[in-house]
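Forgive a beginner's question, but might I ask you for the amino acids of a protein and the tokens describing how it folds?
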Amino acid sequence: MSLLTLLPFIVLIGAMFLMTRSAKKKQQQAIDMRNQMQPGSGVRTIGGMYATVKEVSEDTVLLDAGPGVDLLFAKNSIGAVLSDDEYNQIVHGIEHDLKSDADIVPDDASSLTDSSDTAAPDDAPVDFGKKEAAAADEPADTADADKAKTDEQPKKSEGGSETK
């Protein structure tokens, strides 16, 4: 056999080796992360629950999810071990001034609009009716209005039915 016919098989075997190698690295990193857990550290489970580690055993972790709520989880169900700052920010809403130079994102969209806008005030009702168009179509004089009403009377068609 020539080297040219074996080349596709060699490339496939090499790609499979690289993919399994990266998967093993990720698994090892997850194991190392779970081994770093200590009582008092904040964690996030794979289900998205945030809790504090109370006890760590060989295969299980006892988590404190709130006052009087202790939950027993398998170590494999821990998705991430969080730093103290990150855990306090997520769970308690406490932020440290580590990122004081970062841009501040407003909670509402009021800062996105220009204050010199000539829009109607918020408390004024907005009417989406066609008042201006209806006023232009109506005759100004009442005599003209009566004449227009008689002109608009339905007329009989040859079919014998009257339209209303």
Summary: The two ends are 92 Å apart (CA to CA). Residues 7 and 26 are 29 Å apart (CA to CA).
